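Duplicate of earlier report; Raffinose/stachyose/melibiose transport system substrate-binding protein input re-posted below.
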Amino acid sequence: MKLKSLLMGAALVLGAVPAMAGQLTFWHAYAGQQDKVDFINFALGEFAKKHPDIKLDVVAAEQSAYKTKLNTAMASGNPPDVFYTLPGGFLNAFVKGGQMYALDQDLAKDAWRQSFLESAIAQTSKDGHTYAVPVDVDSVVFWYNKALFAQKGWAVPKTYDELMALAEKIKADGEVPFALGNKDSWPATFWFQYLEMRLKGSGVVASFVNGDAKATFGPEGGKAFEKVAEIAKKQYFPTGFNGMSDQEANMLFLNGQAAMMLNGTWQIGASADAPEGFELASFAFPSVQGGAGDQSDVLAGVAASFGISQKAEDKAGAVTLLKFLTSKEVMTKYVELRKTMVTVKGATTEAAAGPVLYAISNGLVSAAGHLDSFYDTAMPPAATNTYYTSLQGVLDGSVAPADAAKRLEDALKTSK
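Output:
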């Protein structure tokens, strides 16, 4: 039995029933967090005003429960008409099962496709077809306390060698160079991925996921792991970082006990309660001398997207909803409420984003040669587990860098 919700009713259902023309089932994961709730309330409220002919049955869930809920509905053959989905392996499983409606013809009309960052569209596409529209994007940069750097006379590094020299200087000053809490395994992945991107180039994991028989990390994979191991060995991370949470590491950073932090743009929100005098600033991951990758590339992943079920009866109405949700007006409101970059061109305005996020969006991300999506979310689950355990082993010295690279490559070749 499915309880019909009002626009923001967080209805609990066992499955979705295909809707008739003029009625759509819509599932999203914007529950349980005030900024998310504020956004979806605004978006669906405005949609109801402008499209009173399209009625929505809305089901809301928190992110942690949403994936299980959606997977169950898809597996049972009762998918919602329009729904929130993660890019990468999560979306690709539905594509492989023939459950997603391809948006290519719709995107080609009214310059809809051109309204998105092409690098973001690539993350919701497979085998030349686009199956979801990307909504927001998180990028990873180095964060630092501008006031502390000025006080200490530290210069922002432009090259990796300069970064390591600065880390040694900071350590000599009695402070931790890099905040890192890797208890949940994902925070350290940014280090490996950026080094692989700088040494070899972007798109390595995407090649594996897309079934490229020639996909490989190459010798650069082992070298990237070596560099991560070296940072840990030189004690540039906090003591006990592999058992420390990301939140604990963030406190070290905000309290001035750690000078820098390699983290996502969500750091802006995480720094909202910083002590007086803390001035958040960022810089790009530095260039690596001799690296074959485009040194302007940015680790940036689409965090959310919306797709349409192949079973949806009113596909025209479903497309109308997606076009509205990804309109510049709605996406600018998204930025304003959530302080997150969006994939729609021109929507991440300075007024909505604030100076720190706008500088990253308008500068670093816009100028990037490529945006490389997060390895761990792009990989199949089994390979992700191998990635996490291998990287933690490299960091604590129990796994040799070359072995970690081989384990990860083998896992990606065998995982489905």
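Residues 181 and 247 are 7 Å apart (CA to CA).

Merging into the original ticket.
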